[in-house]
Amino acid sequence: MGQVCIMNSSFWSSFQNQATLALNRSAAFGFSYENRFGLKELGTRSAALVIPAGKASVGAVYSRFGYTDFRRDMAGVACGIQLGEKIMAGVQADYMSERTFGEYINNEFITIEAGIVILASESVRIGLHLFNPVPSSLRKLQLPQRLRAGAGMDLGKSLFAGAEAEMSTGGNLIIRTGCEYEPARNFFLRGGFSTENSSFSFGLGYIIKLVNLDIGFVTHERLGVTTSASVRFTIK
Questions:
Q1: Tens of pLDDT along 107-154?
Q2: Distance of alpha carbon 234 from alpha carbon 236, whole angstroms
Q3: How far apart are CA 10 and CA 32, in angstroms?
Q4: What is the pLDDT of residue 138?
Q5: Are 125 and 118 within 8 A, CB to CB?
Q6: Domains identified in the chain, total number
Q7: In this structure, what are the phi and psi dihedrals at residue 36, rounded to the nearest 5 degrees?
Q8: pTM for this model (two decimals)
Q9: Nearest to 118 by CA among 155, 78, 158, 149
Q10: Whole-angstrom distance, CA of residue 37 vs CA of residue 220
Q11: Can you give the CATH number for the domain in which 164 is found?
């Protein structure tokens, strides 16, 4: 959906805005793979786990990007809790590393990210997310800071639409829009657009009992298409 997700209660979105973890009331784990522009050296492999705990839910996520000579690893532990009838909040602690082959310096980072979700009405959700609020003066190496804000609306029982904006250190304003349509029970069609690289996205999702299958495609104006696939298992 063009990465419109900080107000969405789906499994993977919970690690884009940890407040939405509070909306996940079933234990689940999942795996995903993203192949950028058809190059295996630019692939990202991810795994995640969500476990409800009373009014809160906790989660863990791990991802690896790259190949033998250059890779980025990220591991995070998150918690989302319902603070009231119409507001949720969440926080995540992250460890990230960059490792290269040979005599190059390896980098390591520790940071946090946090977000809130407000239920403005029965059909409207507002999300706000902040990544790396740590002052740059406390670091030897710079790690970008990022702020995302957006809103989404259920347009009937089978259609969801949303939009969000993102600002990051040294970057331009990015606007994203996306929608999800359920034309048949447990079958989903998704599409979106991002002003970053003028990219369009589309995808499919299907639920088979306790298993969610998803596939997505994102275009780039010069480099081609990025494909991704994920599977999620719900634990009763």
A1: 888 999 999 999 999 899 999 999 998 877 667 777 889 999 999 999
A2: 6
A3: 14
A4: 67
A5: yes
A6: 1
A7: -80, 120
A8: 0.91
A9: 149
A10: 9
A11: 2.40.160.60
